[in-house]
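Annual report, structural modelling task.

Input specification for the coenzyme A complex:
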Amino acid sequence: MTGAYAVFMAELPEPSGLPGKPTTASRTTLSHIMTQNEVNLLGTVHGGVIMKLVDDAAGAVAGRHSEGPAVTASMDEMVFLEPVNVGDLVHVHAQVNWTGRTSMEIGVKVLAERWNESTPATRVATAYLVFAAVDENGKPRRVPPVVPGNDRDRRRFQEAQIRRTHRLARRREITESRQRPL
Ligand SMILES: CC(C)(COP(=O)(O)OP(=O)(O)OC[C@H]1O[C@@H](n2cnc3c(N)ncnc32)[C@H](O)[C@@H]1OP(=O)(O)O)[C@@H](O)C(=O)NCCC(=O)NCCS
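The model returned the following structure:
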């Protein structure tokens, strides 16, 4: 293994020791037609409805990959690119981008198309979530390392590792800043 991917692999957290699982084993799509029940005061679909679908799809992926219960630890970089309308058929595509010892980053892409037209779907939102696999006592448990199957998944893995590094650095920096007088 050579190049930037090899460098990132060398910087990974302590491995879980479990056998690896391919990205494709848990990749999932959740589809839903938006109705009047889901609109906000502006008449478009409420962002919270999309966030719930994102969390649901990501949770299914995390549970499938880790073969047991998994809880949302954080949700970051939820980006809304286009409004979603009543009558849109929304597809929420989710996959494991990265795994640590007990946590997983799930990448989610949301596409929308008119339910009764064969026009191309539009990308309306993206998100990255971290799930922790937990045991029956709610304590973190080890997850199988994800094995990216192609260059696109390897790139997602690398980028997730960058986000992980930044999340940890930000948390550490904020914790340290709270210990200093204002
Ligand atoms: C998520 C949770 C299990 C973490 O427990 P903890 O005792 O802090 O355990 P750890 O510090 O060992 O963290 C476990 C893993 O989660 C990761 N993690 C914890 N908090 C995180 C956060 N805010 N952002 C990103 N990753 C986080 C850790 O880096 C670690 O990953 P690793 O083992 O791959 O390195 C715990 O905080 C929890 O139960 N939270 C509530 C979850 C919940 O109810 N979600 C909503 C409903 S599903």
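The two ends are 48 Å apart (CA to CA).
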